[in-house]
Specification:
2 domains; seven-stranded mixed beta sheet
């Protein structure tokens, strides 16, 4: 007899997780989620790991959903005191049809003019297209869909078994297209790419081509991570349903190690993804959303360019010291309490070099980026804070 889903309503004391600075993948500064557990129940989900999961038994992850019934009220209170920046939010698993907390949280973001980013596996997000469109007009709304196969993929049937109750990818692509038609930035997250199932060139190109054909502007990718109880759970699934895959996964994920599908194999795949994205006219990095009226737009554009360069350098095996030069420079400019243009106009190169963790060599690199940006018009003809870059 199929196991029934149980919903546990509770009132947490906080909802908004604040990070020191925006991450370099999704450009979000905050995270706020309405549920714990997920009815989609994808077998590979990292949220079954002990550090993320509220469940001792990883089987409970898909059947016991903790509902944060006061999430909208907590969010309203939290962002009233927070600096405006992108909130990673939304959860459109089936529970959302019943509780509508994701929608209520979007209503709070719209009320407070807070930008949002949503990563989703369900076309249910289209229910809230009205709110997302309004948020995008006033602040910014960016989205992405988790997609690791298409109906054209060689191992489509097996991958769909791994995704359990997640809606079919063709429905996610259709939702992507609807968001793109409304001017909302969207793309695909190939996360995680399952070894032996998702990492062949045919599957990679199929996802990238479908993304481009449905209005997506970017594809992000990462490998599968397995740790503690999630590794044991996933290996049990393989043993029961896909025993032929076990030897390969034991090689990729040896006992006693948290992760595995990284290193040179991942580097080669990431370079292939980059090549395929260029072929289809999209990026392998998410463009940083431009928040209307943000007086630090130029600073954030420089950080985006440095982060993109850092990613390329990592793939090209640049020396660790050079990677850290770029990483620290990006952090320093992200944390800068002044518009870097003003520093440059009053002090020139010396002003940039004087920023903590920039120095002479990176100062010239930053100056070159800034000079190019100051020649550009704002994206899509927008003015930022009443003036051009």
């Amino acid at each position: 007899m199929p196991r029934r889903t149980e919903f546990t309503l509770y009132k947490p004391k906080s909802i908004l997780n604040k990070h020191k600075r925006a991450d370099h993948w999704f450009w979000s500064r905050y995270t706020a989620y309405p549920y714990k557990g997920c009815q989609h129940g994808c077998e590979f989900c990292y949220c079954r790991e002990q550090k993320f999961s509220p469940f001792d038994n990883p089987d409970d992850f898909a059947y016991t959903i903790h509902v944060k019934e006061n999430a909208p009220q907590l969010l309203r209170k939290s962002i009233a005191r927070a600096k405006t920046d992108i909130i990673f939010t939304g959860d459109y698993q089936p529970a959302e049809k019943k509780f509508q907390l994701s929608r209520q949280m979007l209503e709070v973001c719209l009320e407070r003019n807070f930008p949002v980013f949503i990563l989703e596996r369900s076309p249910l997000i289209l229910r809230d297209l009205d709110l997302l469109t309004e948020i995008n007009a006033k602040a910014i709304a960016a989205t992405a869909f988790s997609l690791i196969s298409t109906p054209d993929s060689t191992h489509y049937a097996r991958i769909r078994q791994m995704e359990r109750l997640a809606p079919p990818p063709e429905k996610r692509f259709a939702a992507m297209e609807q968001l793109a038609l409304k001017g909302i930035q969207t793309g695909a997250c190939m996360m995680p790419l399952l070894p032996e199932l998702c990492d062949d060139d045919q599957n990679l190109e199929s996802i990238i081509q479908w993304t481009a054909d449905h209005g997506g502007r970017f594809v992000l990718a990462s490998g599968l991570t397995l740790s503690d109880q999630q590794r044991a759970y996933f290996f049990q699934i393989l043993a029961q349903r896909f025993p032929d895959l076990l030897p390969a996964y034991e090689k990729h994920y040896p006992a006693g190690k948290s992760y595995g599908a990284v290193g040179d194999g991942w580097r080669r795949m990431a370079l292939k993804i980059r090549e395929l994205c260029e072929k289809h006219g999209i990026k392998d990095r998410m463009p940083r959303p431009i928040i209307p009226g943000d007086k630090f737009t130029t600073n954030k554009r420089i950080v985006e360019i440095l982060a993109d360069k850092l990613y390329i350098m990592e793939l090209e095996r640049a020396h660790k010291s050079r990677l850290w030069d770029y990483r620290k420079a990006a952090w320093a400019i992200e944390d800068l309490p002044q518009d870097i243009k003003l520093i440059y106009r009053t002090m020139g190169l010396k002003g940039i070099e004087g920023i903590e963790n920039i120095g002479t060599k990176m100062g010239k690199t930053v100056e070159g980026i800034l000079s190019e940006l100051m020649k550009e018009p704002p994206p899509e003809g927008r003015r930022v804070a009443g003036q051009l870059f």
